[in-house]
Design goal:
The complex is a heterodimer of chains A (347) and B (289). With 347 residues, chain A is α+β, with helices and mostly antiparallel strands. Chain A has helices spanning 43-51, 93-103, 108-121, 137-149, 167-184, 195-201, 219-224, 229-234, and strands spanning 3-14, 17-28, 32-36, 58-63, 66-67, 78-81, 155-159, 187-192, 204-209, 212-217, 239-242, 244-246, 249-251, 257-259, 270-273, 279-281, 290-301, 304-311, 316-322, 332-336, 343-345. The longest helix of chain A has 18 residues, at 167-184. The chains are: A alpha+beta (347), B mainly alpha (289). Bound molecules: adenosine-5'-diphosphate (ADP) and magnesium ion.
């Protein structure tokens, strides 16, 4: 594997805001990497630095092993799918898709063939002669994809391409994007603020917070071993509990001390316990980490039941379990958490 | 279904139609009526004292095609075309960059573009004369800088006329171009760069087509009036470079005193305007599909 895109210690400021702060990140060729983070954390800026629409104040940008920091966008072998799609309103679907191909100086017949190929790839057959304003949101999305993919760039950059679509269409497009990426084998750098979308699509996820890169890893890695409280909370639901070292375990409150598989770690500020990893039973569980809880509130969530329980020490915990016989407020249970599910995280 | 849907529209149209009466009255009184009077006079003749005699004649139109007048006509069109091209070349970067600025600067610069309208056009033309004349500002500066020994003749040259025309009409090109440029999404420019276009290609393939309505409006507002402009060629060209507007003016209020012939020139000019307008409209419609 070789690096398709690399940001080396890149920094970009706007006035007093540091949009991208000392970010170093490598995207491998053929990889589907997602930049994930809340709005304003610098995802778009990072993408625009790779596309060439922004120049870093410090650091360098590398594409396919070459330093392109000072190359203009039209000399970079990357194409972007814009959040607003940015389809050319005065060109038909066909001419939009052919736009980049014509710049490559391909003969007319080759352009036609490549446009047909791209149209088939995004299942837009029959729409070639239409104008952008005649298309639905999903269709525009596909044209934008086809237009960016047709010139066969080494890297495709996608800036929240699905955020304007409704939930159902979004799900369909997620599946199609994944299929498309496997089919063409192009490196995808995808931007989203939706952790669910990031999990569904990505080989690896890079989590950003206030312009800084916090953690990079596969979805399961980030979910199971979040490096910071921010990552733990941003990816899925979790119980973030302030804890102090107590012998071999971590004391949560006066009544509960949890053993952790990663107990050797330096003293953290927090431990994270996923709500679906807390088991509730009428009797004490066999392993360590058993403690008594009282049900405070229950919420029916379809396939799952969401409970808020309180320990004898007064700590509130969120618990998710398969729906079945619903619990009643006031009901008492024994809670159990396997030590490998007690994760220590940095602040 | 169609007629049912159309009926209420028509009814409400007739109820509010009277609101259009002032506009219709204005158009009849100041556009249609003068044009008709011009048309009628253009087929008349004149007596020895220069009075209009209503005897039908095509003689005036025959004279329009006299080589002397065709020459003036061609020169007027040529100057107007050159003026238009120079205005386009100057106005595009200005309009484009104003449109890309933040709101406060945009408003300030647009105000600057419009400020000349607050003073008399004649005063501004005289200002140019004081700059360009033999003992004027420009010659003074050039001589002080040691670039020239004797004063050059700037005023009363074709160059001075074109300069005056460009100066007078530049805002009429900037403003419609700005209105179009402002509507072009910045992401479209980025998309063009992204897909391999350098600055010139981006201009040709994206900016130009998307600002065509503004360009067409600007051309109509510069080219056509520039053909008929007489004050600038009078003041900055002296009598040496008469243009169509000077000839027409001469027929009505000058020494020639041939109103029917002036009217015929005016009618031909009006037709030229209408035909070029129709052509531009047609092209705009074809482009939009
Ligand atoms: N052109 C710009 N001018 C000023 N501030 C900007 C500009 N672009 C981005 N920023 C700021 O930089 C930060 C990161 O922005 P952005 O990269 O768009 O974040 P994201 O895409 O993650 O929402 C934000 O605080 C934003 O306001
Ligand atoms: Mg963004």
């Amino acid at each position: 594997m070789s690096a398709a895109v690399e940001w080396r210690a890149v920094r970009r400021r706007f006035g007093t805001v540091t949009a991208v702060d000392e970010v170093s990140l490598v995207v491998q060729a053929g990889e589907f990497l997602t930049l994930l983070g809340p709005s304003g954390c610098g995802k778009t800026t990072l993408l625009r630095l790779a596309a060439g629409f922004e120049t870093p104040e410090a650091g360098t940008i590398w594409l396919g092993g070459a330093d392109v920091t000072h190359e203009p966008p039209f000399r970079r072998d990357v194409n972007q799918v814009f959040q607003s799609y940015a389809l050319f309103p005065h060109l038909t679907v066909r001419d939009n898709i052919a736009f980049g191909l014509r710049r490559q100086g391909l003969p007319g017949a080759a352009v036609t063939a490549r446009v047909r190929e791209a149209v088939e790839l995004v299942a837009l057959q029959g729409c070639e002669a239409r104008w952008p304003h005649e298309l639905s949101g999903g269709q525009r999305q596909r044209v934008a994809l086809a237009r960016a993919l047709a010139p066969r760039p080494a890297v495709l950059l996608l800036d929240e391409p699905l955020s304007a679509l409704d939930a159902r269409l979004r799900r369909t497009m997620q599946e199609e994007l994944k299929r498309l990426q496997r089919q063409v084998g192009t490196t995808f750098v995808f931007v989203t603020h939706d952790q669910d979308e990031a999990m569904v699509l990505s080989d690896r996820i890079a989590v950003l917070q206030a312009g800084r890169l916090v953690q990079v890893g596969t979805g399961p890695e980030l979910y199971r071993r979040p490096a910071t409280a921010f990552v733990a909370e941003f990816l899925g639901l979790t119980n973030l509990l302030p804890a102090v070292r107590a012998g071999e375990g971590w004391r949560i409150d006066a009544a509960v001390t949890l053993a952790s598989a990663a107990a050797g770690a330096a003293a953290p500020a927090w431990i994270s316990v996923r709500p679906e990893r807390v088991a509730l039973a009428p009797a004490p569980p066999p392993g360590p980490n058993g403690f008594r809880v009282r049900v405070e509130e229950t919420v029916f969530r379809g396939a799952l039941e969401q409970l808020t329980v309180v320990t004898d020490g007064g700590t509130r915990l969120l618990v998710l379990r398969a729906g079945g016989c619903p619990a009643q407020p006031g009901q008492l249970f024994w809670a159990g958490v396997p030590p490998e599910e007690v994760v220590t995280v940095g602040a | 279904m169609r007629s049912g849907a159309a009926t209420p529209t028509r009814a409400s149209g007739s109820r509010t139609g009277w609101l259009l009466l002032p506009l219709a009255g204005w158009l009849v009184a100041f556009v249609l009526a003068p044009a008709l009077i011009l048309l009628v006079i253009s087929f008349a003749t004149r007596d020895d004292l220069g009075r209009v005699v209503f005897a039908f004649s095509l003689e005036n139109y025959g004279r329009v095609f006299d080589p002397v007048y065709l020459g003036i006509f061609a020169r007027s069109v040529g100057y107007a075309a050159l003026t238009t091209v120079l205005c386009i070349a100057l106005a595009y970067p200005v309009a484009w960059h104003i449109a890309r600025l933040g709101a406060p600067w945009r408003q300030r610069l647009l105000l600057l573009v419009m400020i000349p309208f607050w003073t008399s056009f004649l005063i501004r033309t005289y200002a140019w004369i004081t700059i360009l004349k033999q003992e004027g500002l420009l010659n003074g500066v050039l001589r002080h800088a040691g670039l020239i020994a004797a004063p050059l003749e700037f005023l009363y040259t074709p160059g001075a006329v074109v300069l005056g025309l460009v100066y007078a009409y530049l805002p009429f090109m900037i403003l419609p171009l700005y209105a179009s440029a402002e509507k072009v999404e910045p992401s479209l420019i980025e998309a063009a760069h992204d897909l391999g276009c350098g600055p010139w290609r981006t201009f040709a393939t994206i900016v130009l087509p998307l600002t065509r309505p503004g360009l067409a409006a600007g051309v109509m507002m510069v080219f056509v009036p520039a053909i008929g402009m007489f004050a600038i060629s009078d003041l900055m060209g002296g009598a040496r470079v008469p243009m169509l507007g000077n000839v027409i003016q001469d027929q009505f209020v000058g020494q020639a005193r041939d109103k029917p012939f002036g009217a015929a020139l005016g009618v031909v000019f009006l037709l030229l305007f209408l035909v070029s307008y129709a052509l531009l409209r047609r092209r705009a419609e074809v482009r939009l599909g």
